[in-house]
Amino acid sequence: MLKTMIGAGCAALWASGALAGVTSTPRYTCERGVEIPTVYINTEDGSEPGVVVLMVEGRMINLEATGEAASGVRYRFPNDGSGYIWWTHQGEAQLIWYDAEVKEEVTLYAFCKES
């Protein structure tokens, strides 16, 4: 079921022209044993991270890489409003919710390790 849902997300991205090539499909295990499967997709020329598709709490979340991270890669929905942030660095990640109204980040899942 999960692979079908992620596959459907990739198909939607491919149809929109955003899918250049799946680069990896790691699964992360976070605190409290929460598992977050992911699909990473490079930019069209394949030189940089482009999009990540996450399955979190039964929802599929598509986020784009930004240039905001000092190290690692930071992904978020391309808007100035509230939304999820997925931050990866050397096999570790965290999922954050950014509340634009109060301009605050709240960590939802920390200590996520690629498995």
TrEMBL record:
The keyword Nucleotide-binding does not apply. It comes from the Bacteria. Residues 1-20 form the signal peptide. It holds the Pfam family MliC. Keywords: Lipoprotein, Membrane, Palmitate, Signal. Residues 28-101 form the C-type lysozyme inhibitor domain. This is Membrane-bound inhibitor of C-type lysozyme.
